[in-house]
Design goal:
This protein is α/β, with parallel strands linked by helices. The chain is built from six helices and 16 strands.
Length: about 280
Amino acid sequence: MPNGLPIALIQTRSPATAEAGLAHVEPLIRQAAADGAKLILTPEGTNLLEQRRDRRAAAITDEAQDPCVLGLRRLAAELDIWLLIGSAIVRSGHAGDDRAANRSLMIDPTGAITARYDKLHVFDVDLPNGETYRESATIRPGETASMADTPWGRLGLTVCYDVRFPHLFRQLAKANAAMIAVPAAFTVPTGEAHWETLLRARAIETGAFVLAPAQGGTHEDGRKTWGRSIVVSPWGEVIAKLDHYDPGVLPATLDLTEVARARAAIPALTHDRDYAPPQ
């Protein structure tokens, strides 16, 4: 686009059901589209956030029946936008495994789903403040990296904890991703310590725009998320960010010619060498 690509990141505080999730996020997407965004991205857990296993099991459905996914597909068609559902928590569809999928969905302006990605790396940690997370107990990890093709370039798909695995980002960049999405529900301790640093590092390493819409605030299940949605340029510069954890819209304009300039200036993506691992 001659004057750049107008985008928007949606920052949410998703409730615990998909119906409520749709009601929460829809006005923010409408606001972003009214302000001119053509590509809009939402965070991890856009449809619902619920850690309590019994309540989550009762809340989730198959992707094809999820009220939030269906509503956002209709909304993308109505508003004539490209919409990335950063992730929806839906049934995985794997027989004998009752864990959910944490699934990114790219929706085109007709409402069709053009790309899917199930989060590869699940968050199993014991934080220094005593918080414990065992995402693997309720989320079935994906097995395949994924890209979404858009009119403006390729968008690499990741989710939250994936940001700590730079090899995934490098593979996406080498597959010609000009933008990489990092929808997230970062914890407060890890967000305060690492969120912006990790995102800037991934942008610098890949020479790609990093687009990170986030969850923020205290959720119905008691978890607290960091917010601070952010857009980083291929040179590692923060070009837009929210400085809080409240729901809102973060607009930005991407000059996608910056991708080629950054990769020409530091062509590290072409300098891989085979080497023996350490012993």
